[in-house]
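--- STAGE predict ---
source: upstream dedup step, 1 unique chain passed
mode: sequence only
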Amino acid sequence: MAATTLLLLSFALNLTVVLNDLLIPLVAAAVPIAIGIAILRYRLYDIDLIINKTLVYGGLAAVITAVYVLVVINIGALVGGSQRLWLSLLTTAVIALAFQPLRARAQRLANRLVYGKRATPYEALSQFSEHLSETFSHEDILDRMARILAQGTGAERAEVWVRAGQRLVLASSSPPAAEPLTPLVMQNGTLPEMQRDTIVPVSHAGELLGALAVDKKRGETMNAVEQKMVTDLAGQAGLVLKNAGLNRELLARLDDLRASRQRLVTAQDEERRRIERNLHDGAQQHLIALKMKVGLAEGVAEPDSKARAILAQLKHDADEAIDNLRELARGIYPPLLASDGLGPALRAHSHRVTVPVELELEDMPRQPREVEGAIYFCCLEALQNVVKYAQASRVTLRVWLSDSTIAFRVEDDGKGFDPAAVVRSSGLQNMHDRLEALGGSIRIQSAPGKGTVVEGRLPLQA
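--- STAGE serialize ---
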């Protein structure tokens, strides 16, 4: 442009011919260079289609000419003039048959040269339509949508936003966001202000479900073909975003349900600890005080009196009541679990089980109370079932760490049962509820005559 301006000024000022002779070649070279930079760097003039068709048919013309010259002229000179007509007809027929495959190949090559990795915008749209007919998870199809949107428009960044209540949440982007973006609040059911080059709402059955957003590279703008492609993609994406929104809402409700169940388990354990403290500090202390008073009365009673024998029996009954109360308190929530942890509490309980218990307890750091409580009470329930129903001669209790989880396994050599034929008891249901409330799982494996295995896992707490 500068060279052109100088040339015009030289004509206007009537400068010397020598100066014009120097400027004309410079302008002649500068103008096509400037046009090429404008087209290729900034994608101006919207001539992608013209360039594409020129490459396709120009390349076809060159190939056909080269083949015709090679076959008809060069080979015709060797076979003689009488055969040239038949050779020409044969060559024309071959070229006619090969024209469509050659054109398709030339079109793909031209698309790649003009559009780069993204090919044509409508190839990208066709890819998305094909993906809709296939089976993908919602996250995968949204990732594919963002990637196809970026490739089809040559965007620096493409985003897929999904409506969640009265907020817009970034569901996917290409390239992926380095940090999660803050959800945007919608106003009166309309899209909020978004600092993006192009924003197209996505709707289904008149309901606003989200938006597609595109940021072009600096100095680039969306041409008409790309704009129409984004609009058409938004039209196809309505049902996808509808399903994605429902899926996100369902997952949110499942998270709320899991959190609610965890709160219930925590509250249950807190109530267990409260009852255990009340029994220890209340009823147990009263019984101990009563036993001491009975002992004092026994000491002052006449050695041969009936009262002394009755007081001795009362003292024995008080000892039994205290032992029973302590056993009850340990079953509600053992103090040893709170003070020393899972391993010592399980060792202490195993000594009170009537079936021989083989312990395999791996050393591990203390876990939160709800995790230790869940493992402890699940193991107790499994051991209790062995004593009541299994008719086993031995049982193995193992607790270990594995792949960021804490796991337990209770295995007996009893009579076993068919899990499919047995109604789940309240004890087994409590085990399921405890573990699932903390994001864990439980598996029960058994068969008649082959014993029973109860295995559960919980994720380790950070």
